């Protein structure tokens, strides 16, 4: 059983799917703007479902819009092996972030078809809805729902900047499926992803085996003040919610600099206010910030400083503070057996690989809360991502794809 | 010549017009949301023009949409006396801010009609377009255009948050007139306005004679950075435009606190960023801030600190800084003769009045750059304004209206 040790994916075929995807939801030159649950996302989903059906995969869509394309195993009642990532992008996103991971799963199934191989366990290729969080906060909403971290109806209620909800938009694009969002048996989850950092490229490594993720903590905080005239209102009678949010964003950036020497990072990613107009103090505001550090204890210290800074900023601006959401991910969360199996395949296939830690969030982080999980990183030029200049060459993917193929088949034959 | 010393406006009639206005562009309970060049603004303009025509005033609209309603004098070729303010409001505006001043001019003409009095010079009631700056920045755009401070076509190009331009929206609501925007002879400009501060109410004064305005300096600043992933990008390689704007807003607020002990104020009124989403660093941002102080030299010190803070914030966040607009107003800009004439009428009519400085910006500030100008302030409860809880009673207006009546007539008979 299992595939021949010489088996390899078809890199040209994989690259063709990437190029087709790169024409759907085109953004700035070379990039994509395919936000989740938009018409462009639907178009890409339709394309992906077509590909899956051509590959004789059985497609199901769950209540959160995530797509599960199953290649049945010989013992289809056993928990399957999942391989996935996301097809949505940032507003100024690249062509590979997330996309490569979903299409890697598809390519793997196509390769097995050509080899006429059936694994013992089923293999399921997954596209998770709203990984990016670029339209609906928080990110990785659907994979969070899959492991029971978020309630389905809470996710449905998430609203974008125009007030449209996740649930309504999911319905609108026709991807509100019937498969239950959560409670599924899963044997293992694999995710291939571009590194989104500069290490592999800088060190000329062909592939990274991800041991874990930078422990990360994020928060969405609301500030409530009071409108008033910008002129006559004395400083000590002001309740300018815009100032509260700006003070928090500034303080969070300071936290990042304080811990930068050991690779800590802090980000003010989003700030909105109302009315946010000349001449009037803002009544409400909201900001999204996060902190990351390779050391889990330090990351928690940073998170605690970030939280305290929100209340200090609110107090300083005379505004009430509400923590709307909090999330965290990362740490040494991946499964040792799976990580070892990836290392073993990298060794056996004779690629120049290294262990690596992820600095970005991934659906794999949520999956790892409940199921054995591991990730493969492929190089991307200078680590540029969330930018239309994100760049990869076909050969950047070849080692990762073949490692994934053999590790997934090995696991699925277990 | 002149009106009888016993002549008084009709307070009930004035109040009726205020109440009619309060039903157009209704906002939160008790307030208005009548942003400039919206359908609601058009509806109010139509109502105002109707009233003017009923009062036999000759209505002209200029290239910037400002409405001039003329009550011809016996010597119509002499430069006229203007009485005006604005009918637009903030998004959470009150019923009196600006509106009372325009309708005071109308009431004054109606009173002269009843008295069958014709002044020597014409009296022109004016509604200035976009005083608030709540939709198009900068505020007081049309009065700035009237005195030649801003170019007509530059004003036409101002864009709101949806990218709609002042020029297009003016055309759309049918108020792009043919009267030249600038270059008009004006004998004097009077403006009645609610105080928008707490002094008159707190001291139980019936009316304020405005000697000048708090010197004020405002800026609209853009920051240019680069999108990137919020995770892996090291702090020293970030160009997060949102952080640049937040740092500037925070620094400007600090300037306000530094000078608060002598009644200085600084405001971060507006902050927008793009993409402004979770997971991605922002490429561009823009913020509007201003500083005000009763002492002109100190106000300039604050303005210089505000300007320097913009460049420091940009440098700290690795972003380029562009000052898109700058504006200033205030100082001892009003005409001594006109101010004295208002004081004299207050004395003669036996009202309990005081001299006062304006802390808000007004169209009168621009008019004063070119023409003899003065203002009358009427009390508003606790100084609350730019808020739906802005509150005035009919009796709050009676002294201001009658002072205005007699001072305008005296000037127009000159």
From TrEMBL, chains A, B:
Cofactor comment in the record?
Binds 2 Zn(2+) ions per subunit.
Q: Which NCBIfam families match?
A: hydantase, PRK09290.1-3
Supply the InterPro entries for this chain: Amidase_Cbmase (IPR010158), Bact_exopeptidase_dim_dom (IPR036264), Peptidase_M20 (IPR002933)
* Upper taxonomic lineage: Bacteria, Pseudomonadati, Pseudomonadota, Alphaproteobacteria, Hyphomicrobiales
Residues binding Zn(2+) 1 are 86, 97, 193
From the Swiss-Prot or TrEMBL record, give the protein name.
Answer: Allantoate amidohydrolase
Kindly give the Pfam families that the UniProt entry links to this protein: Peptidase_M20
Binding residues for Zn(2+) 2: 97, 132, 386
Q: Which cofactors, if any, are listed as required?
A: Zn(2+)
């Amino acid at each position: 059983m299992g595939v021949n040790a010489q088996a390899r994916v078809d890199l040209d075929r994989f690259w063709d799917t990437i190029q087709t995807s790169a024409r759907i939801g085109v953004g700035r030159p070379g990039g994509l703007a395919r936000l989740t649950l938009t018409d462009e996302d639907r178009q890409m989903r339709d394309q992906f479902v077509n590909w899956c059906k051509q590959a004789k995969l059985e497609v199901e869509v769950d209540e959160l819009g995530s797509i599960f394309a199953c290649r049945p195993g010989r013992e289809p009642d056993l928990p399957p092996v999942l391989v996935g990532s996301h097809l949505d992008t940032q507003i100024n996103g690249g062509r590979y972030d997330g996309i490569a991971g979903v299409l890697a799963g598809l390519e793997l199934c196509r390769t097995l078809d050509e080899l006429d191989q059936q694994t013992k366990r089923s293999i399921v290729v997954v596209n998770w809805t709203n990984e990016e969080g670029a339209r609906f906060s928080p990110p990785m909403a659907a994979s969070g729902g899959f492991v029971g971290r978020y309630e389905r109806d809470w996710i449905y209620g998430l609203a974008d900047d125009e007030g449209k909800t996740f649930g309504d938009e999911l319905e609108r694009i026709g991807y509100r499926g019937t498969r239950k969002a959560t409670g599924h048996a899963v044997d293992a989850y694999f995710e291939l992803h571009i590194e989104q950092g500069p290490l592999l490229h800088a060190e000329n490594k062909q592939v990274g085996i991800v041991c874990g993720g930078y422990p990360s903590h994020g928060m969405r905080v609301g500030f409530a003040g009071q409108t008033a005239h910008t002129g006559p209102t004395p400083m000590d009678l002001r309740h300018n919610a815009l100032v509260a949010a700006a003070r928090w964003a500034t303080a969070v950036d300071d936290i990042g600099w304080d811990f930068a020497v050991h690779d800590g990072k802090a980000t003010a990613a989003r700030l909105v206010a109302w009315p946010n107009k000349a001449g009037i103090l803002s009544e409400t505001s909201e900001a999204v910030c996060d902190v990351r550090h390779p050391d889990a204890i330090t990351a928690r210290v940073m998170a605690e400083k970030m939280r305290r800074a929100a209340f200090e900023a609110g107090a300083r601006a005379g505004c009430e503070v509400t923590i709307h959401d909090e999330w965290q991910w990362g740490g040494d969360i991946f499964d040792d057996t799976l990580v070892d199996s990836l290392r073993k395949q990298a060794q056996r296939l004779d690629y120049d690989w290294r262990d690596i830690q992820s600095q970005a969030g991934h659906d794999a982080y949520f999956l790892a809360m409940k199921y054995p999980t591991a990730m493969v990183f492929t190089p991307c030029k200078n680590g540029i991502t969330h930018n239309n200049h994100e760049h990869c060459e076909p050969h950047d993917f070849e080692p990762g794809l073949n490692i994934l193929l053999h590790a997934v088949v090995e696991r699925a034959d277990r």
